[in-house]
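Changelog-adjacent note: as of this version, every example in the card shows the full chain rather than a window. The one below runs 110 residues end to end.
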Amino acid sequence: MSIFTNSLKTFKSKITGKTKTYKVNNAVWLYLEADFGLKQGDWVNMLEKDEVLTLGKFATCILKANKIDTTLEEVLENTDLEILNEFVNSYGTLALNLNADENEVEEKNA
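Full-length structure tokens:
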């Protein structure tokens, strides 16, 4: 049982083929560094160099941060650039409070 009782922002996505709710949490950065050696400040530079691979890494880490056991290879084999962009943008919009409420993000991706 967790000691935390606060609630995190969530969004819905069908990235796995079924609609699921994902939490927006900071564990994604832990997985990015541990699994891929990427720090938060590396994100923009890596995105400019290789958009698909970088979005795939971020999506993999979002899934892992939500207790889904997956690999980068599995994510890349089962997504395209549009799916990756929608998933990562949904996370980022809420994480950065970019003037979107959760209902707007849910409706777009569900």
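Structural remarks: Residues 51-65 form the longest helix (15 residues).
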